[in-house]
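Hey, can you fold this one?
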Amino acid sequence: MRMFKTLALTTTAALALAGVASAQTAPGAPGAPSTWAYAAKTGVGASYEAYVDGAYKDGGPTGTVSKVWFSIADGVLTETMYGLIHEAQIKQLRFAVQTSTGLAVEGTDTVAKTEYLHVDAQGRPLSPAYKVTTTDKQGRFVIEKRIFTDPDRQSLVLRVTVKALKGPVTPYLLLEPHMANTGANDAGAASTATLTANEGDKFLTLKGSKPFVAASAGFIGASDGLTDLKDGKLNALYASTGPERGAIMLTGQLPSTDNEISIDYAIGFGPTAVASAAAADGSLKTGYAKVLAGYNSGWEGWLASLAELPRLREAAMDGGKLVQASALMLKVQEDRTYAGALIASLSNPWGDTVDASKPSTGYKAVWPRDFYQCAMALAALGDIQTPLAAFHYLPTVQVGPKTKGNTGAGGWFLQKSEVDGTPEWVGVQLDQTAMPIMLGWKLWKQGWLPEAELKAYYASMIKPAADFLVDGGKVGLGWNSATIIPPFTQQERWEEQGGYSPSTTAAVIAGLVTAGEIADLAGDAASAARYRATADDYSAKVDSRMVTTKGSLGDGTYFLRLNSDQDPDNKSPVEERNGQKPVAEDRMLDAGFLELVRYGVRPADDPAIVASLPELDDESMEDLYRVRYSFTFPGVQGTFPGWRRYGVDGYGEDIKTGANYGAGDQMRPGQRGRVWPIFTGERGHYEIARITLRGKPAPGALEPVRQTYVRAMELFANDGLLIPEQVWDGVGADTAHPYVRGEGTDSATPLAWSHAEYIKLLRSVADGVVWDSYQPVKARYAQ
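Sure. Predicted structure:
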């Protein structure tokens, strides 16, 4: 009863703030089941915020720290976060338009184009502010939205322009909150001046430069504005959703026009209704032009600070557009409370069929592997501060005595966690324990991480990690009570199988060798010798554990994706994953063995490496097992290569129905993982290692890498210059979202790792040497 009273008072306060005279309550609680939004984003954004002594604090060079992020998909504003980077407060904001021939809704009835608002003379983006244009498929109207955040407030700004093309139109703003990162427990209110929503201590207020003609708050599927508009009129108006909570929509009717109208909106967020309203009011008062200028200025300054960016632009094939966008994408996808917390993607994969009744981070979380890729890419750009902040952040996600609920071995890094370190997934992935060591070594050798500081981190973080890579131990966290015996990893880099993995082992060896160098620096000669001896042992057994000489594909000699025991020739079955039936391990290929070359564990001409390429690249193979696919693009000469994660991958759309992965929380045998642009970059890195095997490349020797691998990654990007996790390979049905071959699917866009791989590829081309190769590893094993 006490809780009900609190909720009722909260709603009443919101109504009073909105200036609602009537308190007519919407029926139909809790509304229809809610999902997240389409995950194929064409834009993501947030303001640039400067560090204060390596942390985010108000009052620094950029003033108040704005903690608002947004995303764009299908021409509409989608998941918008406030607070921590995973805390969504909005599912989507779109427009419905009543015309003389019927109602049209953005997304369903429009085509979209995403452009950057602020570009240089060569068309390269200078900030993640967007102009999004949606055009009615019947040619009756065009809507232009300009979207960015206020760098000095907790608010989002939109300038909305509606142009009528064939007679008068009446636009309706449709806002679907997902307050406190769920879509099933919201309350809201609507007046001609204000739309508000809340859950717990999260509040949202939308205000415009002009009032609405009419407004309504309702439950989705029952009393919401879009349901009401089915008869062409917004006439069932409700001032609030009342004390009941659920999935809601807030609707505001704009003035009708037979020409053009333009209105500015600000959406403020805060811990109270008053705070969210003040944020919206402040942005509107400051004005569109001044807020945008401040937003652009911050990002321009950061881009100008990237010492290596000019060289990377020269290495690109598109004049530097994608590398500049990629830099923005990586920095946008950092939390603004926990400095250096770099997430995988501002998206929830296949979000339009993912239940939103409970909190979900999706990819808005920290994986130390993706994290490492991003930090290394930012370092490749010449950003010193963010990689250092990232390194300093890493103890937040390392398992130890302070990890809540931990009763087992420490030193390893969490599989997946929220940015505050709250564990989400607790599988042990040995590459994710090695990569923080590798990052620390790289920052030290760049001259950015002082020796005294690295010594301190050796004792507190690096030594425990390296010891775990040697000794393993019994885990005691959450469901996980396994005993880990390296280099056998509980999960390899795709988080689905245990065993001896070439890609994981490559990182573990590199991690131990670099840990040995750091141990020497710290004066721990005994540990240094132990780490190197263990790395030597792991390296000596790579072929005997992971190369089959009796495989059923090609000439029978190649690296396995994974081996579950000490015998790579016994054709043991892999575990069933993602709805796919188990197959013999010699029939599941991937390109993970190339990481042995990348990190310096094997030379590019190593016989087992070279012997594995024909099977990996065999495009005549049955689609179930096939890994490589070639793509062509309209107006572009040549074909461009792409690779799946591995054969028999089920992490993708169904080949029979086109349904999203895991739709309805069901695994299906028809699910198929598609091509990942990451692997085009990884193959490009291998080609650089091969070309530079005997030393510095001759002039022009790396041009084929630019023409093929750099260009392919650029072509995989969408019109917002975002690189997807997966692109459509043309195999099977695509009825849910008709795709074009080579176009991103609904899995996740942008994937930070994709952008990181592209940046690192450019740096490697510019340097004439693989950027994240490790010289002491290479000197030990690959000379």
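The chain has a mean pLDDT of 95. Let me know if you want another pass with a different chain boundary.
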